[in-house]
Design brief:
The protein has 248 residues and is of the alpha+beta class. It has 8 helices and 8 strands, in the order αβαββαβααβαβββαα. It has a domain at 75-247: Aminopeptidase (3-Layer(aba) Sandwich), CATH 3.40.630.
Length: 248
């Protein structure tokens, strides 16, 4: 497992080729596996929508061998555009605290993990049941002492994607994250002290989905107080000019 983890890196996707690979993974998960999107709406086998041109795509990539690598997980940050944010178009929402300018907000969207790296299909889109079983004692590099390797790799991928998303957000000046998702993912993130607050009523869209808000500064503080190892992990590789003042 440790050797496999060494082969995985988390990146901001900056090439058209890799973006297509991201859209292919999303197609496999959202169209073929779960049927959340219609095949006819994505005839090229690439799951895309109007928000992609205004999004930052992030990915987990495994280096299979010297010649081959593959995208095994992805998440995106939707930035404000003429289309607004999906969450605001889907459901009436409130806001925790003073609402910042729209350029300080991004929406977390299209989290997808290849089914090969989820524990079992019954765990759902994110493998959240497996994610929740991991011990709270571990950080990103060691997510708990448990028997199943797939249980262990699952949170490693999600936490790695969230770490990359956090670092990109810090560099872009993003201070607030929208997210509309299943309750079980909220529980899974809470397990690692990544705290989001509910800001609206649940809606039925491919199952029950709940709107949440994450305040980056509050998440940093909570991690620093409750999960210092993960907090330190999130700062590794981030230029110190973007660190929270308390960490400098």
């Amino acid at each position: 497992m440790k050797e496999q983890m060494k082969r995985i890196k988390f990146i901001e996707v900056d090439s058209e080729y890799l973006k297509k690979e991201v859209y292919k993974l999303r197609y496999d998960v959202y169209v073929n596996e779960f049927g959340f999107e219609k095949q006819g709406d994505h005839p090229a086998g690439l799951e895309m929508d109007i928000y992609d041109p205004h999004s930052v795509e992030l990915a987990a990539i495994e280096q299979i061998n010297a010649e081959r690598q593959k995208i095994i997980g992805t998440i995106r940050l939707i930035l404000h555009s003429e289309h607004g944010f999906p969450i605001e178009n889907a459901v009436p929402i409130g806001f925790t605290g003073k609402k910042p300018s729209v350029d300080k907000i991004a929406e977390i969207s299209r989290l997808a993990i290849s089914k090969e790296y989820r524990r079992r299909q019954g765990d759902g889109l994110y493998g959240a049941k497996s994610f929740r079983k991991v011990s709270e004692d571990g950080g990103l590099a060691d997510c708990g002492r448990i028997q199943s390797e797939k249980v262990k790799i699952q949170p490693y991928l999600i936490l790695g994607l969230f770490k990359e998303m956090y670092q990109v957000s810090k560099k872009m000046g993003i201070t607030h994250w929208y997210m509309i998702t299943e309750k079980k993912l909220w529980y899974a993130l809470k397990r690692f002290n990544l705290i989001f607050s509910q800001i609206g009523e649940p809606i039925n869209y491919h199952g029950l989905r709940i709107p949440y808000l994450g305040v980056v500064a509050e998440i940093e503080q909570h991690l620093r107080e409750k999960h210092v190892d993960l907090y330190k992990d999130f700062l590794v590789g981030l230029d110190k000019q973007y660190w929270p003042a308390e960490a400098c």
